[in-house]
Amino acid sequence: MTEATHLAGKDEKRQSYNLNKLQKKLRRNVGNAIADFNMIEEGDKVMVCLSGGKDSYTLLDILLNLRLNAPIHFDIVAVNLDQKQPGFPAHILPEYLQRIGVEYRIVEENTYGIVKEKIPEGKTTCSLCSRLRRGILYRTATELGASKIALGHHRDDMLETLFLNMFYGGKLKSMPPKLMSDDGKQILIRPLAYCREKDIAKYSAAKGFPIIPCNLCGSQPNLQRQVVKEMLQKWDRQYPGRIETMFSAMQNIVPSHLCDGRLFDFKNIRRGQLPEGVEGDIAFDKEILPTQSQLPADEENSALFGDEGLIRIKEVG
Ligand code: SF4
């Protein structure tokens, strides 16, 4: 064996080891999300929405993989909506789905034509397009007898949505891992809720999924989402761990320490015993927040650090 063949063999082994590790991680994340939110139950028929992008390919692949050893029985049907965008390579998904041997349906609806006809040139088409697509997918789920609709949104989509809603919508709201459709007839699940986009991107590249470009409709990308995405990516590079902490915060909400009177009965706070599960206030205490390594090191923020590298919040009142 030549030196070059030997090195190529080693490289191949390392790549396959990395792919296995990544697959295990994604499987673990998806399995945990499914269990935490009771996303899939015995006898479910899960309709996986497949757009041809990295997220939905990964979702389908991991769900099929998990099903092999799942303690419950559930069916999977992949669905793609061919929206008749110019240049849509209609053969790619059927070929892929036949090759992996999964039940599937391709739904052909010219939503592209409707959107072009209804929306004046230069205006954003996404809102009507998404509404039409949602209706078609709900209808398809009913026709197929699916009990769950699985979408490929991941943890980074959820965080981006949280910030978008705060910045532009005035709401503390994200994408839930599981929800009821607006007509009350379908249950939507997001099994990739605990998965990082960069793991999905690496997995998709390593698996060589036949990606279909997502700009065929010619619509501009959502600039606000792009800005938020870049902000989060920058934080992730500069302050490792911050994304994880923010996602934990989404699972650790304290309504008595926000200011929505519909979630917490502030009006009836009385002296006496604290209601069960409600934190008392520590407004007069110095609250200790995380260490410097988790916090920005720029000039403005470093001024807040005390000698021990801790932030101390000023006393209130
Ligand atoms: S980017 Fe194009 S296909 Fe996607 S929602 Fe917007 S209009 Fe529809």
UniProtKB/TrEMBL annotation:
The sequence motif named PP-loop motif is recorded at 51-56
Which terms does the record give in the GO molecular function aspect? 4 iron, 4 sulfur cluster binding; ATP binding; magnesium ion binding; sulfurtransferase activity; tRNA binding
Give residues annotated as binding [4Fe-4S] cluster.
C126, C129, C217
Listed GO cellular component terms? cytoplasm
Q: Which reaction does it catalyse?
A: cytidine(32) in tRNA + S-sulfanyl-L-cysteinyl-[cysteine desulfurase] + AH2 + ATP = 2-thiocytidine(32) in tRNA + L-cysteinyl-[cysteine desulfurase] + A + AMP + diphosphate + H(+)
Q: Does the keyword ATP-binding apply?
A: yes
Q: Which Pfam families match?
A: ATP_bind_3
Task: Read off the InterPro entries from this record.
Answer: Rossmann-like_a/b/a_fold, TilS/TtcA_N, tRNA_Cyd_32_2_STrfase, tRNA_thiolation_TtcA_Ctu1
Which co-factors does it depend on? Answer: Mg(2+); [4Fe-4S] cluster
UniProt keyword annotations, A-Z:
4Fe-4S, ATP-binding, Cytoplasm, Iron, Iron-sulfur, Magnesium, Metal-binding, Nucleotide-binding, RNA-binding, Transferase, tRNA processing, tRNA-binding
Residue span, tRNA(Ile)-lysidine/2-thiocytidine synthase N-terminal domain: 45-208
Q: How is the cofactor bound?
A: Binds 1 [4Fe-4S] cluster per subunit. The cluster is chelated by three Cys residues, the fourth Fe has a free coordination site that may bind a sulfur atom transferred from the persulfide of IscS.
Could you mention a single GO BP entry for this protein? tRNA thio-modification
Q: Which family does it belong to?
A: Belongs to the TtcA family.
Any further remarks? The thiolation reaction likely consists of two steps: a first activation step by ATP to form an adenylated intermediate of the target base of tRNA, and a second nucleophilic substitution step of the sulfur (S) atom supplied by the hydrosulfide attached to the Fe-S cluster.
Supply the name of the protein: tRNA-cytidine(32) 2-sulfurtransferase
